[in-house]
Description:
The protein is of the alpha/beta class. It has a single domain, classed as Rossmann fold. The chain contains seven helices and 14 strands. The strands form two sheets. The protein has an eight-stranded mixed β-sheet, sandwiched between helices. Helix 7 links the parallel strand 8 (152-157) and strand 9. 48% of the residues are buried.
Amino acid sequence: xxQIIAMGGGGFSMExxxxxxxxxxxxxxxxxxxxxxxxxxxxxxxxxxxxxxxKSFESHECEPSHLSLFRPPTRDLEAYVMDKDIIYVGGGxxxxxxxxxxxxxLDAILRKAWxxxxxxxxxxxxxxxxxxxxxxxxxxxxxxxxxxxxxxxxSHCPHYDGEAERRPAYERLVSTGVIQxxxxxxxxxxxxxxxxxxxxxxxxxxxxxxxQVHLADGQLKEDALQTLYLG
Length: 231
């Protein structure tokens, strides 16, 4: 079973006192102590971000680790990744994440791990990266489209309610055909894909939602998806 849990926002880095999404991710592995590996590439391997990951996940029933491309734990990245049950990708600059992953061959390693059952998860940049396209602020001047890994079909926009420019930018890009339609997620909402399909959207906040944004007969449509609050 191939699983991806794409968070529009939330998790330990945005909701340190609300572990609902992180616990949901851990629950997808039917082991007492799943091995969860944090990949902080998009933040430039921020030491503070890594520290916050360990502080949070050491309080859960799991074996936390992290994968730095600036200080690699081993030359054999494939063996390191394939040993994990969950890959949890942090937020930051999606463009830099994709560039570094491709240079190191990590994109291909992650695809292999995903195809063999490792749960892929992530927030913001760590959410955009799995789709064919996304809306990103990686270029430093407004929001722009970005080609991504394509594990999942369509486009994606995180922080749909959390950043004022996200929703209008995504709607504009889809309505003008600059990017294909896809899925948006509020902060606190997540999309749980199984074998490329979306059976469920979940949230750590009662009002957080996920949306399908697409063109129908030349008109932009935004359809709210049924979103299960985990609280």
